[in-house]
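Support request, please re-run this one:
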Amino acid sequence: MSNELQSAFKEITDIRALPSDIVLEALQSALVSAYRKDTGASSAQAIEAEIDPDSGRAKVFVEKEVVDDVMTDATEVTLERARFYNPEAQLHDIVMVQVEHTTRSFGRIAAQTAKQVILQKIREAERNALYDEFINREGDLITGTVQSTNAKKVTLSLGRAEADLPRPHQIPGERYRTHEKIRVFVVEVTKSNRGPQILVSRAHRSMLRRLLEYEVPEIYNGQVEIKNIAREAGHRSKVAVAALQDGIDPVGACVGMRGIRIQNIVKELHNEKIDVIEWNNDAVAFISKALSPARVTGVYLDDDPIDGKTAVVLVPDDQLSLAIGREGQNARLAAKLTGWRIDIKSVTETVQGALDNLEIPPLDSLAERHADLIAEALRIMEKKRLELAVMPEEYKSLARLAGLVEQLLQEQRDEAHKIYLQQREAARSILAPQLFELPLDVLAVSQEVLDILEPFGNIGEVMLICAVDEELISRKFADLEGEEERSGEPMAELRAALDIINAADLDQLLAEAFSIEEDEAEEAATDEAVEAQAEEPLVDETAEETVAEAEEAEAGQPEVMLDAFGQPVAAGRSDEGMVASGEAEAVTAKPPATVATPVVEAEKQQGASSDEVHYAEDEGEREFELDRQKGKQQRRKDRQRRRQLVLDEESGEVIAKRRRKGGRGSWDEETWEDYDY
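Re-run finished. Output below.
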């Protein structure tokens, strides 16, 4: 390779931090583009360029057809010359032939095109290299330097790239100074035309996980496992850890000698309080520890098959505010850590409620079996009413009675759940299996009713709930009935729709539902393909502008115009023809700019709107869930418009009417096909 080319290659590879083969590939692509621009070759004609690494000499090969008599040298070649490059070439074959064309003969426009293509390819390779570098660090900690701050985000410098730290991902109360080095958690790395977009966070709960892995060798080595983390950045966090090896104290390993390990993490997180709790498979013991530093008297679990898991926690009166925490923070973090809804009660509150309802089952049995304890509780409660001093032994008596009350209530709940499950199994055995595969949008009910029934998932579950506990659905419809006057009650509307389903042929109705789901999946795939095609990167704007400027500069020189037979046109051509030619050239040059403008504007709008997105973990999950629900509702409305179940009064049979699309992307006249079930 020549000295000039070697020095240019070395300079580019050192400054851009790119391998030499990528730079060489960019130069070859630039030669191809320059040749096309200089000769006006068609885009359908294959052109290749090679550069000798030793001498730096460039060779251009062009696809040509083998003919007897060459009429157009740009696309045809003789058999003798073709066999010089391909000994097996025959007439009318397509071969790659080296052209007698050197880079020195390129015009100014071709040279500008080659320059811009090289710059564009190098920038693209640089963006890809940066993306490959940081995508591997996704989910890890990284140190950045504060470059700029504003009301919406903090921009960090990561060396050759920049990262965004949005406000929802910042620790509340933390201030960032320019040129300050901070550690952040890489949440997401996405590829864009402006390089990798790196989203970092200091409020993400996984940042606490990574800090624990760095500070605690037992976690990094796999001797201690982090089971779960509940975090409210800047305020308090709870971490559940478990030992995977005998003889290791997981909490002590995380805290360290004299708390040195956990204190390093606390300082890094702006003095955030961190509670380290030992994991326990027993839910009662785990919930008791999760509410620390509060002392817990008792935990009573209620695993309701409908409402989910709820834990009733009894605490002493002096521990009630500590268990709940400031603005409910301690109870909220404990619920996130354990996965149970937590209902905290004081001992006095529970005892007073029991004494007021001693005549109601199952509390009526307490008067017979624990009469002395109830009498003692009445005496103590009277002392509290009179604001007299209550001894610790008396509080223990109250705690004992409160435990007995909650135990009776838990037994009653367990018995009710057992009966409910038995009734559910009996009702399920009667219903057809196809009902549990039918989507809810088959029901001929209003959109408001469908939204309320959404958690049940399918028609079979709705029928099952109606058979076991119809009051449950009635309670869900209570708010809907009070909003506005309707033609009929929602329950009556639901019963009528379920009667139509029971009278229909379930197999054919299920096949109809699956066919519409397949149509929607096909439409979604087509829409995604169209969007992906629309988002293909365009040629760099700077390259287009530079080439356009070069073309304008060349426009001032005399131009030799050829007619249809390739002969020069006479100079005495009318001005009208020249004007017409100029208008035609302007018209042909206009569409590319018209096509590029909306894409560029969309990219600008997308870049502007990306700064306004809230990146907080909980908020992001809620927004994602709302978008998912909106998408479900829209698809359900579309299916309802295309399918409807009605009862034919003349024949007494259920008829499914379905409107089909006449073509992709547009609706033909509405045609309805009847299916008898």
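Residues 483-488, 535-547, 549-617, 658-677 have pLDDT under 50 and may be disordered. The first helix runs from residue 3 to 16.
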